[in-house]
Amino acid sequence: MEFDTIAAISTPMGEGAIAIVRLSGEKSVQIVEKLFKSVGNKKLSSVTSHTIHYGHLINPKNEKVIEEVMVTVLRAPNTFTREDIVEINCHGGIVSANTVLKHVLLSGVRLAEPGEFTKRAFLNGRIDLSQAEAVMDLIRAKTDKAMNQALSQIEGRLSILIRGLRQQILETLAQVEVNIDYPEYDDVEEMTLQQFKEKGLLVKTELIKILETAEQGKILRDGISTAIIGRPNVGKSSLLNSLLNENKAIVTDIPGTTRDVIEEYVNVRGIPLKLIDTAGIRETEDIVEKIGVERSKKVLENADLVLLVLNSAEDFSREDEELFQLVESLKKKNVIIVLNKSDLIQKVDEQVLYKRFNFKYIKTSVFENNGVESLEKEISHMFFQGNIGDSDMTYVSNARHIALLNMALQSIEEALSSSEEGVPIDLVQIDFKKAWDFLGEIIGESVQEDLINQLFSQFCLGK
Prior knowledge:
Layout: E1 6-9, E2 18-24, H1 28-35, E3 36-38, E4 51-58, E5 65-74, E6 85-91, H2 94-106, E7 110-111, H3 116-123, H4 129-140, H5 144-154, H6 157-181, H7 193-211, H8 214-222, E8 224-229, H9 236-244, E9 262-268, E10 271-277, H10 287-302, E11 305-311, H11 318-329, E12 335-340, H12 350-356, E13 360-363, H13 372-384, H14 399-420, H15 425-443, H16 449-457
Helix pairs in contact: 4-5, 6-7, 6-15, 7-14, 14-15
């Protein structure tokens, strides 16, 4: 499959040591050769693959120097896209990178679409669709565990599992077809409904095993939406700052200082937490604060984890009571009560609270930096039982993959149900074939072009 030559800036825009303009396509070397003057006048068309060369980018019309550059030549098929790739390393900076890109585009190269380099790697057979999607997961990874998960998928661990399941289904379908088409051959093993059921159960078990990793996989990929709630001036913003190890939120002794929702990501023992510091939830006549309170309640409804902060040095108030009842009414299963200011004389009885509200309680003194480590440990145990990101585990985290795995599982279950009811085997196999197709969509072997275009459009430009 041949494509035109494309180019894009592959490094973040802004000031930096180096910026890279990447080209991919059959004419990459030929085009850059016209713009590049190396020390020693080497021709790029004659240099060895995977070598880098110093020189200047020039305007071929007037021989004027455009930039001082290092040019890397990578020849197909041993490249990311399996096409010839040239990378022009210039000085980091918006003007410099854009100037180099402009002259490359004027030489007859097309500006790459978002994700087009990775899309070509997929279309040229270097990676499958699940591996291509993992490239974006790697770029967006917020913790080392999330990065390792994405690397595992790029290496093809999920693909191997999916291909193995498809092969089992395919062998079963092939056997059925043989028995249907050549019933007169006595030496062909007869695929009875019972045997079909046994194969189906094996595939079902494997699908369930993969899907069991979905919740933890999505956490590593997308993070835990964590709402920090409480009445004003109990230490919510101080807790946020302590978890972040920086003063992101304004902290004062004045109740109602936080009037809007503050969002930040933090790495807690390998788990990405999307911390949301909310405005103190209370009755107020202040219009701005009232809007903040309503937003806080909305955040609470959508949160995966709730950290309800109490000032344990003050009596349990009516406002605290209402917050506990609000959390209970939302039936949140992941709730931790943070009894803050434990360094002061305690007025809240933890045991009395526990008898009324069966939540997990952690004592902290954010002011003295005590108890935060216990809180992080409890969060890790709550979602991963303390065992985060087993290196031998293949996690499924992509929402599209999870949906397709569930559809494949449903098709297998329908096939098993039909076989139990004695439905003819040639009809049972229709559901088996659906499962095979659904699994194929994960790795891109049975997927529509529109979906491929949509997936790669979500990538950043130059990747």
